[in-house]
Design goal:
- It is a single chain.
- This protein is α+β, with helices and mostly antiparallel strands.
- The chain has 2 helices and 5 strands; from the N terminus they run ββααβββ.
- The chain has one domain.
- The longest helix has 14 residues.
- Pfam families: HalOD1 (PF18545).
- This is Halobacterial output domain-containing protein.
């Protein structure tokens, strides 16, 4: 499994990973791949993403923002990780949810 990411130290002492969407995957697949990398666990061992957010709605929101060239920013928590999705930026995944400013 290959993934592009950059590790950072988050303000709360946790580590953050920046994950870029690959051409062959959806934004949801990118999120799952990134969380698995942060957790150091296989993707199949993660709880379903729909426990935290509607995956189809997330995919559609990102596709729509790309079609109409609009900015989006969505934050949510899954598997103890804070996930920040912005339409043109890599996905930022932090292993311990930071304060509300994320």
């Amino acid at each position: 499994m290959e993934y592009h990411n950059q590790h950072q130290i988050a303000a709360d002492g946790g580590s953050a990973v920046l994950v870029e969407e690959q051409p062959s995957e959806s934004i949801v697949q990118t999120v799952i791949r990134g969380i698995a990398a942060v957790q150091g666990t296989p993707e199949c061992d993660l709880d379903p993403l729909y426990d935290s957010i509607d995956p189809e709605a997330l995919n559609e929101l990102v596709r729509h923002s790309q079609r109409v060239s609009s900015d989006i920013s969505m934050k949510f928590i899954h598997e103890g990780c804070a996930v920040l999705v912005r339409n043109e930026d890599p996905i930022k995944i932090t292993d311990s949810p930071p304060d509300e400013t994320m």
